[in-house]
Amino acid sequence: MLSFISAKEAAEKWNISQRRVAILCSENRIVGAMMVGNMWIIPGNAEKPIDKRTVRREKGHPVTIKPFVKWVGGKGQLIDELEKMLPSTGEKVLTKYCEPMVGGGALLFNVLSKYNFTELYISDINPELINAYNVIKRNVAELIARLMEMQMVFLPMDENGRKFYYYSIRDKFNSVELTEATSAEKAAYFIFLNKTCFNGLYRVNRKGQFNVPMGAYKNPTICDEENLLNISKVLQNVTIVCGDYSLSKEFIDKNTFVYLDPPYRPISETSAFTSYNADAFDDEQQIRLAHFIDTINKTGAKIVLRKDNKELKTYGFTNAS
After folding, report:
1. Order of strands across the sheet with 96-99?
2. Is the domain of 280 the same as that of 304?
C-alpha cells in the first residue's frame, strides 16, 4: 500500500526547505504529489527532483530570465530582430541601455541575460508596475513568501472559491494605498492579479481602479521563485524610475541604446485596452513623443521605436528606416 509523507517530512528527507517542496509540488515536478485540504502530501517513495537551478550554474550557461508579468503589447516576438541592432563588439559597442516605457520588460530581461551594459535605465508611468520592479529588486524574499501563500490557497480551490478569492484580492489591491510600508503587499497583489486575470490585462477605470475580471486558467504559476530571484539579481544595477518617458532625456547620450514602445494609438473612441493607465495615448501624445525622439536623436543615441505590433523604426543607425 502506497504511503504518503508531508511536505515538512519531504523537506527533511531531501535537505531542502519546506517552501521549496511546495513549489516543486505546485509545478507538478513531484510524481504523485497531491493537495489535501491546504497542505501537500507526497508519496513516500518519491524521488527528489533535479534542481534545475544547480544544473544551470554548474554548466555555466547564462541564466534565463523572463518577464514576471504578462503584458499587452509585449515585444517577445520581436526580440530576434531587436538583438541585431545591439552592437556588442568593435568601435560601435554601446555602454548604456534605456527603456523608458518598459512595460513587462521582455527586451530588458533578454538584454540583462546576454549583454554587459555599464548603465541601465528603465521607467514607466504605471506606479504599480514600477513598484513591483522595485520590490523584486529590494525585497524579493517577502514578495516570494506572499505569492507562495496566495498560490497555495488559490490553486486547490474550485471555480467558485477561486472567484471569491480573486475578487477579494482585487478589492484589496484597489483599497490599499501604495506606500513604502505596503509596497510588498501591493506588488504581491499586482502579480497575483496579472497571473489570474483575463488575458493578463492591466486596465483601470477613470477612478484608477483595476477592473479586469478573473481569467480561466487551470493551473497558473503565481509564484515563479527561481525567476524572481534571478530578476532580483540582475536588477541591482538598473535605475528604476516611476515617471514620464521624457525624464530619461538626461540619461541618454551617444553611447545609449534606446528602445521606445508606446501604447498603441486608439483605433476608436471606445478602445478600452490601448493603454494601461486612465489616460489614452492619443494624437497629442503621439506628436509629443515625436518631438522627444527628435531631441534625443541629436545626442547620437541609437533609437528604436516600435510603431505598432510589428513595425520598427530606427534612428541613428547607418541604415535607418
Report:
1. 238-242, 119-124, 96-99, 256-260, 302-306, 312-315
2. yes
